[in-house]
Amino acid sequence: MPRELWREAVFFAVGRLRDTLEVDWPAGSFIVSTHDYDVSRRTFVSGPYGLERLLRVGDHVDLRGREVLEVGANIGTTTVPLVTLLGAAHVHACEPIPRNLTLLERNVSRNGLAARVTIHRAAVSARAGTLTLSLPDRFWGSSRVAAQGYCASATTIDALLAGGTIDAERLALVWIDVEGHEAAVLAGGRSLPAVAIVLEHDPAQQPDLSALHAEIARRASRLIDLASGEEVALAGLGTTDLLILP
Question: Which one is the CATH code of 48-245: 3.50.50.60, 3.90.550.10, 3.40.50.2300, 3.40.50.150?
Answer without folding.
Answer: 3.40.50.150
